[in-house]
Amino acid sequence: MWNIVNMDWLTNVFITHSPLQAVIVLAVIIAVGLGLGKIQVFGISLGVTWVFFAGILAGHLGLSIDNAMLEYAESFGLVLFVYELGLKVGPGFFSSFRKGGVKLNLLGLATVLVGTGLAVGLSYLIKIPMQDMVGIISGATTNTPSLGAAQQALNQVGISANGAALSCAVTYPLGVVGVILAIVVMRKCFVRPRDIRTKDSEDENQTFIATFRVKNPGIFGKTVEEIAKVSKTPFVISRLWHGGDVMIPTSTSVIHEGDRMMIITTEREVDALTAFFGEHESRDWNTGNIDWNKIDSSLTSRHIVISKPEINGHKLGSLKLRNNYGINITRVSRSGVSLLATPGLLLQLGDRLTVVGKEKQIEEVARVLGNTEAKLKDPNLAVIFIGMVLGLLLGSIPIVIPGISVPVKLGLAGGPIVVGILLGRFGPYLHLVTYTTRSANLMLRGIGLSLYLACLGLDAGAHFVETILRGDGVVWIGSGFMITVIPVLIVGILAMRFWKLDFGSTCGMACGAMANPMALNYANETLPGDVAAVSYATVYPMAMFSRVVIAQLLVILFL
């Protein structure tokens, strides 16, 4: 009797479709996948990608969950992942786009076109019907929105879309692994040390500290305000040494011959400031191991975090901190990027300000700004869900393109990442608190990606082995692998050799062009900084949209 009860209990928990069974099955798949993701082979680990393979194994063994629950969990996971990714890279997205975004998008588009041309060629060469090839392209590029678009187009022309779904399922695993393998091959065979950014200071927003001695007669006797108007280069004076005295300069402070100034600027502006002030001293202030409080005995340097919501969205100059408290703000750290503390800089909750001045005045500034990190540990969940709703609404808007009968949409992936980027960058203008701690952002992204991969693998696993054993399945897998690897290698190598793109940006561009968040996760784990994530977010919207359009064009033009 006890055995029968036990069997019924196990059947209800793992087999019989219910909300409880769905949660348990997905949790087991994710736990097993993440456990396997810690295994390294030749120093390489696929990390969270193992969740996808664990899902395929579970599906092959006969496990399943209710289709509606599966579709919901998969969609929610994808939306949560891409929205949080957009929030994370939003603050640095537009500055990155100004610096190299056009180049990145052109390279991403080149990757898309090379893969499409290869797919069309293979379709004719190996005699793969286009209704199957569009699925192969979607799987090889891990782009489920393009599969949805292709299926809609196939249904409209009266052709079954089952072949596209199956070919996508069997090519998807190597689509995930293929981009990672291409990244590994590029790094081992084609990457030079200078192609890898080792610190975020190479970002154009990153601040650079230098000291100058005034030797230019043209600025002798002028005030700080006057020389700031003359100079076309943005800078902040942290400290001013006149004779044996050190001071926090104000707009009315007069600059004399021989004065020393500690300047906060960007590295590319150092030569221009050297010509402007007269002499650049050789000491390196950017090593990261300098005790700023020992530079001089009368001034203190401290980091203060903005934790008061009412400060969110205000310009730094509007707070009048220098005039009211006699301190100087030299840098603002945001999402790992150090920004120049100009008066027009729009402050966000969670910004970390470097303040120089007397200890008493700094304490008063800390009270004004909050400086209570405990208040920032709880993410603003309301804004997260509002942003997801806005992203889904944007993704559902049909965009009519002349000559294409079926309107295209940004979809579940495109809409949320675009809204996430916009809110991450411009949310403070609307006084929206979009700040989340790094750990909270990573956890939300991890939960979303794990759910998405578990559902995707579980859905594909039922017929996965059967399709592989068929002759068509082997041809599909081989074709998909070529469509994945060849464009990434060709465009990636050319990007580093001829367009001088660093390796991190190249990886992000390739992952964005191939719509591959799993490969991006691998790049983020093996490369320093967030340059790959910023590059991914720069390329992804355009690449995803182009693939959705191309999937429908292939159906319209070749069937």
In summary, what is this structure?
This protein has helices at 2-14, 19-36, 50-60, 67-125, 130-140, 144-156, 162-189, 224-230, 270-277, 321-325, 359-369, 381-395, 411-426, 438-461, 464-469, 471-497, 503-513, 517-526, 531-558; strands at residues 207-214, 236-242, 245-247, 260-266, 278-280, 300-305, 328-334, 337-340, 352-357. It is of the alpha+beta class and 559 residues long.
Number of beta strands: 9
C-alpha termini separation? 61 Å
**Strand/helix succession:** HHHHHHHEHEEEHEEHEEEHHHHHHHHH
- The strands making up the biggest β-sheet line up spatially as 3-2-4-1-5
Task: Quickly list its features.
559 residues; 9% strand; 19 helices; alpha+beta; four-stranded antiparallel β-sheet; five-stranded antiparallel β-sheet; single chain; 57% helix; Alpha-Beta Plaits
Write the layout of secondary structure elements.
Layout: H1 2-14, H2 19-36, H3 50-60, H4 67-125, H5 130-140, H6 144-156, H7 162-189, E1 207-214, H8 224-230, E2 236-242, E3 245-247, E4 260-266, H9 270-277, E5 278-280, E6 300-305, H10 321-325, E7 328-334, E8 337-340, E9 352-357, H11 359-369, H12 381-395, H13 411-426, H14 438-461, H15 464-469, H16 471-497, H17 503-513, H18 517-526, H19 531-558
Antiparallel strand pairs: 1-4, 1-5, 2-3, 2-4, 6-9, 7-8, 7-9
Task: Describe the protein.
With 559 residues, this protein is α+β, with helices and mostly antiparallel strands. It has a domain at 201-375: Alpha-Beta Plaits (2-Layer Sandwich). The chain has helices at residues 2-14, 19-36, 50-60, 67-125, 130-140, 144-156, 162-189, 224-230, 270-277, 321-325, 359-369, 381-395, 411-426, 438-461, 464-469, 471-497, 503-513, 517-526, 531-558, and strands spanning 207-214, 236-242, 245-247, 260-266, 278-280, 300-305, 328-334, 337-340, 352-357. The strands form 2 sheets. A 5-stranded antiparallel sheet has the order 3-2-4-1-5. Strand 7 and strand 8 form a beta hairpin. The longest helix is centred in the first third of the chain and has 59 residues, at 67-125.
